[in-house]
Specification:
379 residues, alpha/beta, FAD/NAD(P)-binding domain, 5-stranded parallel β-sheet, 4-stranded parallel β-sheet, 9 helices, binds flavin-adenine dinucleotide
Length: 379
């Protein structure tokens, strides 16, 4: 029996498990291969939904479905947390001390929010990167009629690099729709010398911010927050007053990765094309936990899952794997409440940012609905 273990049933792990169930259908049914998906949460969460929760366009419940409804019946699904990886013994361990042997293993554990590393952030900042944060922000925004909203990207890398720009353009439009924009100042801050890591998106966002009276602060590296005074202090010595702070918290990968010596800060050091760990055999990483030079995005996790499914299936059959990942990334970006743009790029390419339009906004909303089919591996 060839044992394939996937840890993490988010976008990457679920697509991968379903692709493998399809590619290795015959071998699984003959009892020659097992595909096991181990995941901590019985609910599968589609995080892009959280962008819409602060504006009342979606609820937190819209973001999740039971994972067992999404996974092919040929996959052995196990709800539980993996607490250790021994890549020499090819063994995973669990909180009760039990272990599981594997022949090929994939880490798909995503990214974690780490607000506690910035003093005052947990008390003074809001965000829309998780269910509780998105609901609290919705309640704050509903009551917010005047003052200063600061959207601050605190650390990179973070999930969906475009989402903070999208939120800023959406909040501007949302306040205008409600006749409140004249009484609200909006500021967007970013740690480097431009508004976004990718130059073409930075230029596009900067032009829109100017048009919509959004103040842009660059080289803005947050050091601490004073929640009582309502002040963000930066390493560069700036003090910025806020009435509502929306801050993208620093992210980290998984302790499993650091403890197993697979990479730094919890991100797995992988070959960017094969997605195989550089320091251990038969170990792969996909999605946010993989340290590759592109966005931490669901589309990346999805494309990587396809490549890793092909490579694993080849190895399970004793063949040489040939599939490789070229960095393909696609993303719809909201430019307000009813217009969006779309970008696509590969490793080393600068994306072309299309003129925002209503059809692209509808396409983004349509994609969000069809996600539940893509997670099943159907699209
Ligand atoms: C607000 C927001 C908007 C976004 N918008 C977009 C967008 O428009 N387009 C886009 O492409 N991407 C977007 N993203 C990013 C996208 O959601 C992530 O990149 C994607 O979810 C990554 O998938 P993943 O499989 O790596 O991790 P996740 O989907 O985060 O899944 C990780 C899974 O691993 C499980 N897990 C973790 N540790 C363990 C363990 N030790 N044992 C067992 N299970 C474990 C978790 O419970 C979870 O189920 C957005 C993200 C946010 C927060």
């Amino acid at each position: 029996m060839h044992r394939i273990a996937i840890v993490g049933g988010g976008t990457g792990g679920t697509v991968l498990a379903n692709r493998l169930a399809n590619e290795l259908k015959t071998e699984i049914e003959a009892g020659e291969v097992e595909v096991r998906l181990i995941t901590a949460d019985p609910e599968h969460v589609y995080k892009p939904t959280f962008l819409y929760v602060p504006f009342g366009k979606k609820t937190v419940d819209d973001a999740s479905r039971p994972i067992e409804e999404l996974v092919d019946r040929r996959v052995t699904l196990e709800i539980g947390e993996v607490t250790g990886v021994d890549t020499d013994r090819k063994q995973l361990s669990f909180p009760d001390g039990s272990t599981l042997e594997y022949d090929q293993f994939v880490l798909a554990t995503g990214a974690n929010l780490e607000p506690e590393v910035i003093p005052g952030l947990a008390e003074g900042g809001h965000h829309f990167y998780g269910p509780d944060g998105a609901e609290r922000l919705r309640d704050e925004l509903a009551e917010f009629t005047e003052g200063h909203i600061v959207l601050s990207v605190i650390g990179v890398p973070h999930m969906c690099p475009a989402a903070p720009v999208e939120f800023t353009l959406m909040v501007d439009d949302w306040l205008r729709e409600r006749g409140r924009r004249e009484d609200v100042d909006v500021t967007y801050t970013y740690p480097i010398n431009r508004a976004h890591g990718l130059e073409s998106i930075a230029e596009w966002a900067t032009a829109l911010f100017e048009e919509r009276d959004v103040t842009l602060e660059t080289f803005f590296n947050v050091d601490e927050i004073d929640p009582d005074a309502g002040i963000v202090e930066t390493v560069e010595g700036i003090e910025l007053e806020y009435d509502l702070l929306v801050a993208i918290p620093p992210h980290r990968g998984s302790d499993l990765v650091t403890d197993a010596g697979l990479g730094e800060d919890g991100w797995v050091d992988v070959d960017r094309h094969t997605l195989e760990a550089t320091v251990a055999e038969d170990v792969y990483a996909i999605g946010d936990v993989a340290d590759v030079p592109t966005s931490k995005a669901g589309s990346v996790a999805h494309y990587e899952a396809g490549v890793v499914a092909d490579r694993i299936a080849s190895r399970a059959r004793g063949q040489t794997p040939t599939a490789t990942y070229d960095g393909k990334t696609v993303c719809f970006l909201e430019a307000g409440m009813d217009e969006a743009t779309f970008i696509e790029f590969e490793y080393g390419e600068e994306p072309y940012v299309r003129e925002p339009s209503k059809p692209l906004h509808w396409a983004k909303l349509g994609y969000n609905e069809s996600y539940w089919l893509t997670a099943r591996g159907l699209l």
